[in-house]
Amino acid sequence: MALISDAIKPAGLGDGEFTVWGEQITVRNGRTSLAGPSGQNTIAGSVITLREALRNIMKVGVPIHEAVRMATLIPSRVAGIESEHGSIEAGKRADLIAFDDDLTMRFVTVGGAPRINRLS
Q1: What residues act catalytically?
Q2: CA-CA distance, 55 to 53, in Å (whole number)?
Q3: How far is CA 39 from CA 33, 35, 44, in A?
Q4: What is the pTM of this model?
Q5: Got the DSSP string for the chain?
Q6: At what angle do helices 50-59 and 64-71 cross, to 10 degrees?
Q7: Which residue in 119, 97, 92, 94 sits closest to 108, CA to CA?
Q8: What is the pLDDT of residues 33-89, one digit of tens each?
Q9: Which of 89, 60, 48, 90 is CA-nearest to residue 72?
């Protein structure tokens, strides 16, 4: 199983009103809908992040190492880019995230260059 997110722009921003692709949408309790009374039954996209997907799959008993594999190597394999992405190996792109027990990002590298360092 692969964990992915097809999240739209308001992902991670919580509840509120947003404009996406020129449409007004409402986010309430992680569910999106077109704004206004006529749009309340129309899903307007996903706002789940991969971190939330990891948390959800771990809640049903999947060990963290397998959940991370489901969010990295498996999607890369499905997309046909596993020779460059999805695992830590020589010759692969060094996009890495280190997180703590709460899945809060502590260190991030993109192409081997540090972007976030909250280790101190």
Answers
A1: 6
A2: 5
A3: 6, 6, 9
A4: 0.76
A5: ------B-TTTTS-SEEEEETTEEEEEETTEEEESSGGGTTS---B---HHHHHHHHHHTT--HHHHHHHHTHHHHHHHT-TTTSSS--TTS---EEEE-TT--EEEEEETTEEEEE---
A6: 140
A7: 97
A8: 887 666 667 888 889 889 899 999 999 999 999 999 999 999 999 999 999 999 999
A9: 89
Contact between 30 and 43 under an 8 Å Cβ cutoff? The reply is no
Identity of residue 112? G
Please, what is the Cα angle at 114 between 112 and 115, to 5 degrees? 125
Alpha-carbon span 71 to 68, nearest angstrom: 5
